[in-house]
Every structure is written in structure tokens, then in C-alpha cells.
Amino acid sequence: MIQLESPYFDPEQIMESGQCFRWQKKDNGVYCLVAFGRYLEMTKAGNITTFYCDEKEWNGLWKTYFDIDRDYDAISQKIAGSGDAHLKEAFAIGQGIRILKQDLWEMIVSFMISQNNNIPRIRGSIEALCERAGIKCDSGDKMSGGNADVSLRPLYAFPGPGDLDTGVFDDKSLGLGYRAPFLAEMFSFAKENPGWIDNLREMNYEQAMDALIARKGIGPKVANCICLFGLGHVDAFPIDTHVKQLLARYYPGGFDFKSFEGVAGIIQQYLFYYELKNK
DNA sequence: TTACAGGTCTTGT
DNA sequence: ACAAGACCTGTA
Predict the structure, then answer these.
(1) Residue A120: phi, psi to the nearest 5?
(2) N or C: which end of chain A has fewer CB within 10 A?
(3) pLDDT-based confidence at residue A238 (cuts at 50, 70, 90)
């Protein structure tokens, strides 16, 4: 196992910050997730988070996924030194949030599903797609305490572009609604153009935004989420219905983006989380 | 019944 | 360029 001591890591807050849809909290307080085809469990006690994996897997995969190398203390100090009282409040509530570096393709599909939708249905649709593809994730033997509830555990890897039949999206039980044709088109496009995804990784923020928005079913908000959570462009600042409301209410004179250049996307998560907590 | 959910597309000006 | 209106569907 791996242990991390930091006030800037909280599984509960990350899970509720809306950037990931496949994390789960089990009855015994264990958090679990599937990413990049791997299953992982975590627990938190005080400022110490325990990850149930070995050092090789930690260094090769999760360290990047959890954004471990970023200096969140510097962000904390930047916020403390700002004159933004609302942001300070938000950070006090959600300082355990991090920007996950998630699988790019998974982010594209997940946030396409998220448009004009609610969290429970988004999660249901995503999990249903994973089950439909039926690719077992590499999990097995690493369950904390050996008491994992298999019925709750996400068992399937996220399907790649070629892992689902195009007809699957017509199935109403997936709950995709009017987004189904967008997704069918994206899956078939990505399958026929395997270089498209890799090219996105080589682009800067503006280029990636243009390439993403060119696809049907991806607008500015979804593209920003993909840039932020899948490409690590931390200047991306997704403006959804909640952020729009919060900006109008707490920043009527305009938000000071210049002061937070280079971390705007992370700031957005604190604000978003705080807004949700207050509703 | 209506409104809303981490929006986007299409159409009309 | 910008403003409506439509859109699947579960939940309150």
C-alpha cells in the first residue's frame, strides 16, 4: 500500500466535485474507482490517505492520475494572499479537491453524456456503457481487508472506440436520450481516425478546444471539461449553469482571471464544489 | 404540472 | 454575431 499525508487530498470531496463519474463510496467507508482499466481502493483517516496498490503501480499510473506532483500548497497560499473572500471560503470547504488527470477518451465520452443532464443519470449511462462492452477491469486481488462488496464495485473498464457496436446507442435503457446519435458518431469517428485522440494531446489549449468543438455534441463547456480533466490544461475554466450563477452572484464586476492564470481550472473546482454544497 | 439537470444544435434575425 | 426554441428523461 501507499500512504499520502496531505490536507490537499480528500476522496469524498474529489468524488463530489463532479469531475469523475465512476468513483464510489462503499458502506465500509472505502472509496473505489476504475481508471485506465485498473481498479483501485482508498481509505482516508485524518490527513492520511491510503491507496491499496504497490509502489510500481503507484509510480506508473496513480501518481499522475491524482496530480501528485502539483504544489497545492502554493495554490493555497495564492488564495490566502488574494482579496477574494468568497474563494477563501470555498477553499476552506474543499481544499481536498485535486484536478485528476483522467483518460482522454473517457472524458470525451463522459462529458458528452453530461450535457443538460443530472449526475445520477450520467453515472448510470456511463456504467451501463461499460457493462455493455463487458471488458473486465484489471482488479482482482487488491481489495482492502478482503471485504469488498462486489455488487457495488465497478467491474468493467471503460470501452474504447472499437469496443461497442454502433447499434448499442439506440438502446433506450442506456438513458442517453437525444445524446445517443452524438455518441454513436463519436465512437465511429474515433474508430476510423485513431490518430485524432493522439493529436489532441500534442495541441495547446486553444488548438484542442477548436478540434473538440468541431465535433457534434461538443460545445464550449464540454470541451473545457475535456481540456481540464483529460488533457491537464489547467487554464480551462468550464462555465456551466452553476458556475454561471455563482459568477453572476459573487463576481458581478467580473472574475479576476488574470490573478489566477495557470490555476484557473483548479479555482473553478473549488468554486463549483462550494456552490453545490450550499444547495 | 412545471422546472431543472455540470449544454448544444438549428434556425431566424 | 447573437437570441430564442427544441431536445431525452428522471427527479422533486
Answers:
(1) -60, -40
(2) C
(3) very high
